[in-house]
């Protein structure tokens, strides 16, 4: 159900950015959502938790819907801010946007490090403790991904970002298939078909 954030993002995009979607584009967004849901179901295969064992509650659904709207709003509003001042460098805008996140995370880290220091009398203030080459690789790739998405939102749209996110697992799966002999389920193929059709018809421009 987390894939509903695709629909909520499109709805908020229409409200905040004032983007008008054609009927075909709405159909593409729905197909993209369905493809994401099918892919999520396929991801559960092979896990110890069966689909029949998954329980939902009203509170859980309410929280999930809130998550979908908050996630969609965050993405759309970020795009709104980035496009509001097109003359500014996207890198400068990223610095302004991420400063708040850095500050809050730094405060949380200092509080936790101090609490551990008080309870164990050991120094936990080394922010790079335990970092390895793999850690830095993850950090760098995540930073590059953030910059890439910022460029997409500034010069294109959140909808394009959603299509990229939806297509990313298929690139990973294809590489895993060739490198690690990963078994591909039928749901994966169906999901890929839905997403491919969604991408094609979203950009369909009848003459």
Automatic annotation (TrEMBL):
Any Pfam family hit: Nuc_sug_transp
Annotated source species: Biomphalaria glabrata
Topology versus the membrane: Multi-pass membrane protein
Domain of life of the organism encoding this protein: Eukaryota
Sample GO molecular function, one term: pyrimidine nucleotide-sugar transmembrane transporter activity
Encoding gene per record: 106066135
Transmembrane segments: 24-44, 56-78, 90-113, 133-152, 159-180, 186-204
InterPro entries associated with the record: Nuc_sug_transpt
Record has Transmembrane as a keyword: yes
Subcellular location: Membrane
GO cellular component: Golgi membrane
Signal peptide range: none
Keywords: Membrane, Sugar transport, Transmembrane, Transmembrane helix, Transport
Name of the molecule in the record: Sugar phosphate transporter domain-containing protein
Species lineage: Eukaryota, Metazoa, Spiralia, Lophotrochozoa, Mollusca
Keyword Zinc-finger in record: no
């Amino acid at each position: 159900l987390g894939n509903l954030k695709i629909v909520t993002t499109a709805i908020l995009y229409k409200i905040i950015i004032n983007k008008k979607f054609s009927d075909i584009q709405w159909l593409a967004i729905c197909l993209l959502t369905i493809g994401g849901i099918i892919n999520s179901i396929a991801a559960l295969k092979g896990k110890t938790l069966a689909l029949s064992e998954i329980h939902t509650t009203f509170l859980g659904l309410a929280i999930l819907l809130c998550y979908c709207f908050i996630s969609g709003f965050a993405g759309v509003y970020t795009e709104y801010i980035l496009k509001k001042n097109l003359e500014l460098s996207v890198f400068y805008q990223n610095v302004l946007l991420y400063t708040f996140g850095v500050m809050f995370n730094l405060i949380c880290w200092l509080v936790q490090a101090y609490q551990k220091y008080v309870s164990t009398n050991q120094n936990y203030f080394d922010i790079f403790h335990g970092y390895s080459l793999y850690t830095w690789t993850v950090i760098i790739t995540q930073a590059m991904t953030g910059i890439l998405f910022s460029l997409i939102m500034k010069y294109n749209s959140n909808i394009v970002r959603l299509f990229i996110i939806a297509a990313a697992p298929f690139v990973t799966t294809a590489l895993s298939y060739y490198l690690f002999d990963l078994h591909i389920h039928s749901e994966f193929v169906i999901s890929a078909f839905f997403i491919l059709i969604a991408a094609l018809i979203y950009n369909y421009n009848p003459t």
